[in-house]
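Task card 7
Instruction: Convert sequence to structure tokens.
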Amino acid sequence: MQRRFLFWSNARSAILSLVLVLMCIGSINVYSASFVSAAAMFGNTAYYFIKYIYYGLGGLLAMYIIGWRINYHFWFKHEKCWAAIMLVVLLCVDAFGATTKGAQRWLSIGGFSFQPSEFVKLGVILIGSGYLGRLWQQGIRPHLLQQKSNLAFWVTAVLAFMVLIQPDMGTAAIIMALMIILYLVAGLPWKQVGVMLGIAAVGVVCAVAVAPYRLSRVVNWLDPWKDPQGNGYQMVQSLIAIGSGGWHGTNLGMGTGKFFFLPEAHTDFAFAIWCQEWGFFFAVALLAIFLLLAYAILQVAKNTTDEAGYLLVTGVNFLVVGQAIANMAMVCGLLPVIGVPLSFISYGGTSLIATLAAVGMVCAVYRDEVRKERLGQSSSQPPIPPRYTQEGQASQPLRFRPRGWQPK
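Output:
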């Protein structure tokens, strides 16, 4: 586990360095993208920048506590409790949440507002990795129609539905996608994957059909120039901002998109401002940093000998980097506008804290593996999915078993 990773002494050092670099980029971009609107709304050009720093420090503290002070197995011991808490909190959002821009997604406690669905993303990773990790150790293949292995999937479906009715289809889709990825890694049969994707496609069509604004987003995604001053305005302005940056950008602070042309310039469409002010080369550099972060987290997963830890690190990788790539694709018009934040770069306190907490869990897995290596308890190979029989049982022993396991 403590192997050299490119320019760093180990993968954890690389992860921490890249996260800090992304946060520095994010703080600069948030200030540049928001100082006009912040001055107009609050009389302080650094309003959003200061709040980003505030939330960033809180997130770093959470990352330190989770990554260096808590054994990550602790989270797996209370899966039912976390699921119940998330369900109750989402019900509170539905009953008492604040409505902003037509969506009821926020809770306010003592003057502090947060978006619970951001923590639900991390919560379903914890539930899925712990639940599926135990099945993996027992040689049980996950099956969506068998009660002994489908509980995590249906719990996630309920949570995703609660987020969908806020309404927040983009976050609901991410929540389900994270659990589906964990099931795939744990060995879900490909036939069931095909059926599940078909059901998901039907669900998306139904969700779009019952909400005219979602249908409008799809139509304007296909051709935003059809209504550039109406429903396609945001996407058109995003493409204009990206295109006007050219190869080298317009220089820091000189982008025009933030002057009330591009809505959500410092949140969901922060990447458009980055492209406009820094140009194509730095846009590619930002993407490269995320891909390098994904590779570093992958190295931690590949060298993790615990099944649940392996799934946890894999899920966090898709949450942090996969969500970032989805945002970039959305801003560039490759995906419909679904309100997905760009990890570390978009302004959003809840998202930033949840993302840093997720990185802390990767560090916790790394720390536990290093401890086992020092004590001589770590195997030399990471866990691999077993081969299964048609009955869903492992046809050969798993490479790793819980401590104290003895062959029959």
